[in-house]
Amino acid sequence: MDICGILEIVALVTGIAYMVLQVLQKRIMWYFNLVTSASSLAVTLMSRLWASAALDTYFIITSVIGIFTWRALARKDGEGDRVRLVRLTPSAVLVSAAVAVVGGVGIYFLLLHTNDASPVADAATMILSVIAAWWLTRPYIEQWYVWLAADLIAVIMYATQGLWGMMTLFSLYSLSCFAGYIHWRKKGIYV
Predict the structure, then answer these.
(1) Model pTM?
(2) CA pair distance 117, 148, nearest whole angstrom
């Protein structure tokens, strides 16, 4: 097994732990996401998926932001079994929609000038994941819808590239969107 395969396994194992912890809204998830994102960054760089590599870098940054944001929410609301939620604002939706359209098109055209292996799927996965990760740091319950769209596109992209470990991880992420939404809705309280 080559280094890329080993890193896919590391990303898969830590990504599964992250996924479960995200569904349960446990703050430790952010640390698992750091390891998952770093492993995935190496895989995407070796596979010439440039937007996904940039996205993994962004995930590392949002993990650090998430650690501090969620710590502040926990201090405000206590450490109970409740899922802490923030209401999605119309301005957040409008800004996110604008970012999705302008950013998605911009990333796609940028990737056309590189040797990116899958520019359409890579651009779509990146921009939707940027929005979903930002919404997760807030935490908006609606982030699960955006994650689902991004994850399904990523499944197709990784399958077409023969990256079976990454495809498996994103397939599991897609399934976790349903469990996460249901859990957050059932246990959620707006702070």
Answers:
(1) 0.87
(2) 22
